[in-house]
């Protein structure tokens, strides 16, 4: 009996131990793989109601404040993770870039996509999947826009800067249009070798149409088919199948964007009947021919390849030039909702919503490839009018280094750290893409004990709202970066425009976190146009500051008007509303320099 009760006791205790072990390990496993915290989800639609279609980065910032720097959301079954700090973005998008570098899928990968509106954009690098085609495209883009190569574009960019200064001195009130024209003309010249100031081309209008089509298509949740893919099977003639009708009209607009300047460039190459290599040497000797452009360089390279690589490389070349021409704009509207309802346009019978940076009466078409550069330059004008002491210090540095006998140049960068600091501060103070560009994970992952499933969309939110005292204390206690560009430990008084924060002993201080590392994105998908953008921003900013005074506009009694910059409320942030400021050439010498350069 005793033997029985002992063995029974042992048996029961072993079973109990096993049960406890099983329960404990299940709970631990559950804890280990639990999803990050986030707002409660409703059946089927999940967090669709928490996911804003306007003021996106501001509202998502509210979620990060409430749930922490890794927030889980699910919209119609699609997992999404919102990253609220630079630390988290670095940990995942930079250090684990190999699994965080995909982009959300395009519709054309799904069945029956004959005429769905997103078709036509499959060439655009910002939208490509993380795979071999993207890798090849990225390599080609890098070959055309890396720090070593971009110096070749400097002569045409310098010319564009000088023309911009002349326009600004002649008609300073139209400064937003001059900025747009400057950026578009220099990028089109770099990409295709076409001078839009001298040749009449439809390129700007084509890009405007294509971008309007893009903006109208890539609005999250606009078409029910996105959430109910089964609708793809409904024939186009069926009432209410708007996405197919829209797609039929928009796809040719997008094709024009890639084909028209490319075809013209090809025709020019053929008509000149001069081998590309010969033409380049003629140009370098100043004996005529087209200036070097991305297209001529890539065609020359492709001409030395064998099929089928040759055809593929030409395809990539075409996409690369178009990405420079329109890519930055694509980046901007990809998950943008900044299309105001009153900006409605009718295009070829289809109602499409156009995106404009400001609601002025400009006759200039909205230009391609300009979004981030445009916004950053608008920030410069706003900051200079608001912070006269910064402008004065910039003038002092430029007078000491460049002097009154010449205009600044790209090569002056190392000797002008304060101007470089102004550029960094513009990129930080009004970050242009606060939500970066959405990524998608390619593998299951675990981060800080949370499970992040494969296929999750990753959204970094570098929104620039300042921290409350309580939030700041929480950051200090947890030792995490908060709000990326607004972290007071890296950027004391973050709301202040203070370029000197980047300087130490008259040089750029390497110990201050570089805001450009945030503004241009993370890891393998970080902006490949960064060096190009930084160089051109420096050169144009130095030239503006060297030759102009910028101050608040005056009222009729000659009193300074309060400066107000209305920010667009979408994903991509810019000082989109026009603001008034007084822009005047600094001196007779500056005027003479501008005139002499043109
Ligand atoms: C102030 C200027 C600019 C800023 C702040 C900026 C910022 C960005 C950001 C945040 C991304 C997304 C990176 C990510 O996924 O983490 C991006 C991607 C990209 N940018 Fe820029 N950009 C600028 C100018 C340019 C210019 C001038 C070009 C072209 C010459 C360019 C071409 C691209 C391309 C092609 C991508 C997609 C890269 C990929 O998906 O692999 N950007 N940019």
TrEMBL record:
InterPro entries: Cyt_P450 (IPR001128), Cyt_P450_CS (IPR017972), Cyt_P450_E_grp-I (IPR002401), Cyt_P450_sf (IPR036396), Cytochrome_P450_fung (IPR050364). It is found in: Membrane. One of its GO terms (cellular component) is membrane. GO terms for molecular function: heme binding; iron ion binding; monooxygenase activity; oxidoreductase activity, acting on paired donors, with incorporation or reduction of molecular oxygen. PROSITE patterns: CYTOCHROME_P450. Heme binds at residue 527. Its cofactor is heme. The keyword Lyase does not apply. Gene3D superfamilies: Cytochrome P450 (1.10.630.10). Keywords: Heme, Iron, Membrane, Metal-binding, Monooxygenase, Oxidoreductase, Transmembrane, Transmembrane helix. PANTHER family: P450, PUTATIVE (EUROFUNG)-RELATED, P450, PUTATIVE (EUROFUNG)-RELATED-RELATED. Belongs to the cytochrome P450 family. This is Cytochrome P450.
């Amino acid at each position: 009996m005793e033997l029985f009760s002992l063995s029974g006791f042992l048996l029961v205790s072993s079973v109990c131990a096993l049960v406890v072990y099983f329960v404990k390990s299940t709970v631990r496993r559950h804890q280990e793989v639990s999803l990050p915290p986030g707002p409660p989800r409703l059946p089927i639609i999940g967090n669709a109601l928490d996911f804003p279609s306007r003021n996106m980065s501001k509202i998502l910032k509210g979620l990060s404040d409430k749930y922490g720097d890794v927030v889980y959301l699910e919209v119609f079954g699609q997992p999404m993770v919102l990253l609220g700090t630079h630390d988290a973005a670095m940990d995942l998008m930079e250090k684990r870039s190999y699994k965080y570098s995909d982009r959300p899928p395009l519709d054309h990968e799904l069945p029956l996509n004959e005429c769905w509106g997103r078709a036509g954009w499959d060439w655009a690098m910002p939208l490509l999947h993380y795979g071999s085609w993207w890798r090849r495209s990225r390599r080609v883009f890098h070959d055309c826009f890396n720090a070593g190569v971009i110096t070749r574009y400097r002569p045409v960019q310098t010319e564009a800067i000088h023309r911009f200064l002349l326009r600004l001195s002649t008609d300073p009130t139209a400064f937003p249009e001059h900025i747009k024209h400057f950026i578009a003309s220099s990028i089109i010249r770099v990409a295709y070798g076409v001078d839009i100031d001298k040749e009449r081309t439809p390129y700007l209008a084509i890009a405007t149409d294509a971008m309007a089509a893009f903006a109208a298509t890539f609005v999250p949740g606009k078409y029910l088919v996105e959430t109910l893919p089964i609708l793809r099977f409904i024939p186009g003639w069926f009432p209410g199948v708007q996405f197919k009708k829209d797609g039929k009209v928009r796809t040719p607009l997008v094709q024009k964007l890639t084909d028209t300047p490319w075809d013209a460039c090809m025709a020019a190459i053929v008509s000149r009947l001069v081998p590309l290599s010969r033409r380049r040497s003629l140009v370098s000797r100043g004996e005529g021919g087209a200036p070097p452009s991305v297209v001529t360089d890539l065609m020359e390279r492709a001409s030395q390849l064998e099929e089928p690589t040759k055809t593929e490389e030409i395809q990539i070349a075409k996409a690369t030039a178009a990405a420079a021409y329109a890519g930055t704009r694509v980046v901007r509207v990809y998950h943008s909702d900044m299309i105001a309802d009153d900006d409605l346009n009718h295009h070829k019978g289809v109602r499409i919503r156009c995106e404009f940076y400001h609601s002025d009466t400009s006759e200039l078409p909205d230009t391609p490839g300009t979004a981030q550069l445009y916004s950053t330059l608008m920030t410069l004008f706003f900051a200079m009018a608001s912070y006269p002491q910064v402008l004065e210090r910039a003038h002092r540095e430029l007078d000491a280094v460049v002097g009154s006998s010449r205009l600044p140049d790209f090569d002056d960068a190392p000797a002008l750290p304060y101007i470089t600091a102004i550029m960094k501060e513009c990129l930080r103070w009004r970050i242009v893409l606060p939500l970066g560009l959405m990524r998608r994970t390619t593998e299951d992952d675990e981060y800080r004990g949370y499970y992040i499933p494969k296929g999750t969309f990753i959204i970094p939110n570098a929104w620039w709202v300042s921290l409350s005292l309580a939030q700041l204390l929480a950051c200090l206690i947890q030792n995490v970066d908060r709000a990326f560009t607004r972290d007071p430990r890296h950027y004391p008084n973050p709301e202040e425009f203070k370029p000197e924060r980047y300087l130490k002993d008259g040089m750029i201080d390497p110990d201050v976190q570089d805001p450009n590392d945030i503004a241009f994105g993370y890891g393998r998908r970080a902006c490949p146009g960064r060096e190009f953008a930084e160089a051109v921003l420096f050169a144009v900013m130095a030239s503006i500051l060297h030759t102009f005074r910028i101050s608040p506009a005056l009222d009729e009694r000659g009193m300074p008007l309060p400066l107000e910059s209305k920010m667009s409320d979408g994903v991509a942030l810019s000082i989109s509303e026009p603001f008034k400021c007084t822009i005047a050439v600094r001196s007779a010498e500056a005027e003479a320099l501008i005139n002499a350069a043109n």
